[in-house]
Design goal:
The protein is an alpha+beta fold. Helix 1 runs antiparallel to helix 2, helix 7 packs across helix 11 and helix 8 packs parallel to helix 9. The chain is globular, with a radius of gyration of 28 Å.
Length: 784
């Protein structure tokens, strides 16, 4: 894969969507009256530290230059609603007066459109600021509540932000609220407080308050687990000095475990916890899966070499919750950044989640996911997150027939924080075993589902903004049903994932089995670590891209969904949506993860590109691809880590996409992809006679471009006619488009391309390698 050093800037053009037709004098007077009314109301009821903040309801999504109007944009909401702070009342009223007097032309910066497309100014209601848990809570005026409070933030300096927060803290004192913790960043102001129920209404009425809810926390089931005992353990060889570092952010790890001892480089506790060591077994199980994968394949060996060095970051207490006095995002941020800065760790596993907050479409991004996205944007690390566990309905014993329907139709089965983080890799769960434990030799227990099917507890997508989430799946366990009592067994020892754990003195065992997405995520983390071992300089984008590029949607989950719903009169796209919500891009094909073969070649690029420009890559299509019987598949994966803001409709500040072309010259590809047209930047402008030269991608760009990891495939017909028409080069055009981001104008990204032939006798590797080496030698001579 050869990157062409061609970057073309797209030139902006005027938004040509029509303004609605209004009478400026009437409409302008209406807006003036609305503004004066809100200003009087604000001044009459102003609280300590309160700014003049209200909502603007727009007629359409046409952008408004708020700064020119004397306003500062704080947040964007669905249905064309913007929340703004008044910075300069005089400027706003002056421009509005000119508009009312019909003295503003449509061509000026502060022009006709700015006011013609504004419907009204209104204040937010307290109910709009309440999160899902608080809104369903019956508030007792005498009770004391612990709440997370998010304040609006604008593009002010940190010094000015701290001044505002200081005034808000004075307001909290005035309503007898106690500040427990705060997180003050450029783009996130979050406070944890204790407050009496009688004052919650006053809190919600403060105009600087953006969002209030019960604190996020880590909640996972800790049922009584049947322990497994092993008398002989393999000898453990410690990791090499250059082995990859992996951070385990969890309940801690027991460093004295006989199979983990010596592999833990550092153990630290965060959030005020005293000991960094595991008291529940969850973190130690996660660590064992990262080191060994399937432990059953290890226990029979005489010795085993540990592949990774581990960093143990304990963030949850003995009850598997975050400390009450601390803001969750502060604890997580401190732990990850400590390991990044002190140990240069760039792989992290986070098997934690809060099941009280299933994702609802068109709601703002949660704080936990948001802070992970910010970390990945800043450091380009790989963070692997579990999808979260869903509690399926029993249906009086009919769960076996109905749990797929529940997963796909029940809103409570949606992903939970922090699995929504767009810059992280989210992992769902599938079933490894389907033979339950029969304690009394009676066949009264049956598995809820079969091998390779979706686990009955795995949460499903889509993710934030309808992006593909989870991206992949791994073994996480199964449940069984007692056919006599109709009760569900969530801790069947035969159906869970076996791993290292705390020592059980009763059984004399260092191992146990559990089921949950907590244990599918570390398996993917292990695979990411193996990629890092093979590519030591790889950063988070490339690690994610290499893994997802091997994924395949041809799974038992897909087969089952298509069979189950075939008589429901669903279109193919609707069926595809169902299995994609469960498995994302599909199973990881581990065989191709870190190796190329004669019939399977992987190429990659990791770097950065200027925003609002295009990079073009040349892909060699050799004679063997066309001449060998069968078809070849091009798999393409793009991963990037954009800046994010939870107060924007477009959550990511940058959007990247790609197109694949065949049978065109580099000059032609350049002409049709790097065009000076803002509105057409992502649209196809190929002339009709060249349409066949743009390759069909599966899934389509529309389906995959809502996330930050984009994976699709293209089938190449292996015949002489195709070779004659399309030639020996394909071109991949990677585009980077600015949304609202105004920071450094370079976006890191990685592209991975594999060429896979159906015929395993095809010898592609040496041919492709030879083309690339010859091209590189030519380029070196030209530069010399």
């Amino acid at each position: 894969m050869i990157k062409e050093n061609i970057n073309f800037v797209r030139q902006g053009r005027q938004d040509r969507r029509p303004d609605r037709q209004i009478q400026p004098r009437i409409h302008g007077q209406k807006l003036q009256n609305s503004f004066h009314s809100k200003k009087e109301q604000y001044e009459a009821t102003k609280k300590i530290g309160e700014d003049f903040i209200f909502k603007i309801v727009r007629d359409n999504s046409k952008p408004i230059n708020f700064n020119k109007l004397g306003l500062s944009l704080l947040a964007e909401r669905p249905n064309n609603i913007s929340v703004v702070e008044v910075k300069d009342s005089y400027a706003l009223m002056s421009n509005l007066s000119d508009f009312t007097a019909e003295q503003i032309a449509k061509t000026k910066v502060v022009n006709y459109s700015q006011f013609a497309n504004i419907d009204e100014f209104i204040f937010q209601t307290p109910e709009e600021k309440m999160g899902p848990i608080l809104s369903n809570e019956s508030i007792n005026k005498e009770s004391v509540y612990t709440l997370d409070v998010q304040l609006y933030s604008s593009d002010e300096s940190l010094k000015d932000i701290h001044k505002k927060v200081s005034l808000f803290k004075d307001f909290l004192k005035s309503i007898q609220a106690t500040l427990l913790d705060d997180c003050i960043l450029q783009s996130l102001i979050l406070l944890k407080i204790k407050i009496k129920g009688s004052f919650i209404k006053d809190l919600l009425e403060h105009r600087n308050v953006y969002f209030v809810d019960m604190p996020q926390n880590s909640i996972y089931d800790m049922d009584n687990i049947n322990q497994l005992s092993f008398s002989e353990l393999p000898k453990v060889d410690l990791p090499s000095e250059d082995s990859p570092l992996i951070g385990v952010i969890d309940s801690g790890i027991i460093p004295t475990h006989p199979l983990l001892k010596g592999s833990i480089v550092a153990s630290e506790s965060f959030g005020g916890l005293k000991s960094p060591f595991d008291e529940q077994g969850h973190g130690t199980m996660v660590a064992g899966i990262i080191q060994f994968g399937d432990l059953n394949n290890v226990l029979g060996l005489e010795s085993v070499k540990l592949p990774f060095k581990l960093l143990n970051g304990r963030v949850t207490n003995q009850n598997n919750s975050f400390p009450d006095e601390k803001i969750l995002v502060n604890v997580i941020k401190e732990a990850i950044e400590e390991f990044i800065n002190e140990y240069q760790c760039d792989i992290f596993n986070l098997s934690l989640g809060d099941s009280r907050f299933p994702y609802e479409t068109d709601t703002k991004m949660d704080h936990w996911s948001y802070i992970l996205d910010q970390i990945v944007h800043e450091y380009n690390v790989a963070i692997i997150v579990s999808a979260g566990n869903y509690s399926p309905y029993h249906h009086n014993g009919q769960i076996l027939e109905r749990f797929y329907d529940d997963l796909l139709e029940d809103p409570m089965a949606a992903l939970i924080p922090p699995a929504l983080a767009v810059n992280c890799l989210t992992v769902g769960s599938k079933v490894k075993d389907d033979i339950p434990y029969q304690s009394d030799n009676k066949l009264q227990h049956i598995a809820v589902t079969g091998k390779e099917q979706a686990s009955p507890f795995t949460r499903v997508g889509y993710g934030y903004g309808n992006g593909i989430k989870p991206e992949t799946i791994a073994y996480g366990g199964n449940y069984s049903l007692n056919t006599g009592t109709k009760r569900l067994n969530t801790s069947d020892r035969n159906l869970g994932i076996l791993s290292t754990s705390l020592f059980n003195p009763t059984l004399g065992s260092w191992f146990e089995t559990r089921s949950g997405t907590s244990f599918s995520a570390p398996y993917i983390t292990r695979l990411i670590g193996l990629i890092k071992k093979r590519l030591p300089s790889a950063k988070g984008n490339l690690l994610r891209a290499v893994l997802v590029n091997t994924c395949n949607q041809e799974t038992e989950i897909k087969n089952y969904v298509q069979e189950r719903y075939k008589n429901k009169e669903l279109k193919p796209a609707q069926l595809k949506e169902k299995y994609t919500k469960i498995q994302g891009f599909g199973d990881v094909r581990e065989k191709f993860l870190i190796n190329s073969y004669d019939h399977y070649v992987t190429m990659y690029y990791e770097g950065e590109m200027e925003i609002n420009k295009v990079n073009i890559f040349e892909i060699p299509i050799t004679d063997e691809i066309y001449s060998k019987k069968g078809k070849a598949t091009l798999n393409i994966t793009l991963a990037y880590n954009p800046p994010c803001r939870d107060s924007r409709i477009d959550y990511t500040g940058v959007k990247m996409t790609y197109e694949l072309f065949r049978g065109l010259s580099l000059e032609e590809v350049t002409k049709y992809t790097c065009k000076p047209d803002d509105d057409e930047f992502e649209k196809d402008t190929l002339p009709k006679h060249l349409k066949k030269h743009k390759c069909k991608l599966t899934p389509s760009m529309q389906e995959i471009s809502r996330g930050t990891i984009l994976k699709s495939s293209h089938r190449i017909s292996s015949n002489a006619a195709s070779q004659q028409v399309y030639g020996d080069k394909y071109y991949l055009a990677v585009k980077c488009q600015e949304r609202w981001y105004s920071g450094p104008k370079h976006q890191p990204y990685a592209v991975v391309i594999s060429i896979e032939h159906d015929n395993e006798e095809a010898v592609l590797y040496e041919e492709v390698r030879g083309v690339l080496e010859a091209r590189n030698r030519t380029r070196v001579r030209q530069r010399s």
